[in-house]
Amino acid sequence: MVASGVRQQLIGLFEVTRFTNSLYAGMYTLVGAYLSGGIVALWSGAAWVSAVIVGLVVAFGFVINDMVDVEVDRLAKPHRPLVAGRLSQADARIFALVLASLALGLALVLGWLPMALVATTLALATFYSFVLKGTVLLGNVCMGVLIALIPLFGALAGGGITLAVWVVAGLMFLFDVSHEVLKTTADHEGDRAAGLTTVATYAGVPGAIRIFQLLALLFCLVALLPWPLGLASWAYALALVPCALLPTLFVIVLLLRSTSDETITLSLKIMRYMWITNLLPILLLSSRS
């Protein structure tokens, strides 16, 4: 029984962190280091320590998010570990403190500036979960800022923030804000039942989808900027079309034709895969800007 309980707890800890998201965040941290200092920076110890730190911060964010969302998840996502009983609130609280402490400790190894940035990010993630999540656009923008900080943090380990890194941060901000807005359409029933005010509960699903489409179009336009700015070659443009532009435009058109739950689920799945496909054109940006 004891072994079974420990196993269940470990599974709950693993689930609550959404581990794959930490992996994605770590990859984009390394991308920031690469765009800043090239292949030498990519293989530096500082870059990989930075990637681990970002993964820990992302895991922390998901843990506190689930701690705050217990009542909402009880209505809409009963499979999550805190609601399903695979993890207790007390254990989740301790786990969040451990993750935050590890992130701050490792950041101190890199210097005071990285540690200050990590502390600010942890505070912002906490503020999002406790205050901003159930707001119209503010929470979505906050999440976009947190995501945009990832390549910037990696660039600090690579030698400094270049113009290419700023462009990537801007693209990640727009992509994530649009993604977050679209996610409110999938969660609108549970959010409304819990009394939360989000883009979808305030503007309705059709209104939230229109906002998403405008943001997605803006993402496409900004994604084209690196070429005229001299940050990328034709190889970037050729990779951008199938990896980012066409999938985004497909989702926009798909949601023009239908706003059913099935269509929204498919659209969110496509956008999630785009966190991987977007890596190719980003890696083709110049690291000498």
UniProtKB/TrEMBL annotation:
UniProt keyword terms in alphabetical order: Membrane, Transmembrane, Transmembrane helix
Indicate the secretion signal residues: none
UniProt xrefs under InterPro entries: Prenyltransferase_related, UbiA_prenyltransferase, UbiA_sf
| Ranges annotated as spanning the membrane | 23-42, 47-64, 94-118, 156-175, 211-229, 235-258, 270-287
Protein name from the UniProt record:
UbiA family prenyltransferase
Source organism superkingdom: Bacteria
- Where would you find this protein in the cell? Membrane
**Record has Hydrolase as a keyword:** no
Species: Candidatus Chloroploca mongolica
Its placement in the membrane is given as:
Multi-pass membrane protein
One Pfam entry for this protein is UbiA
* Keyword Membrane attached: yes
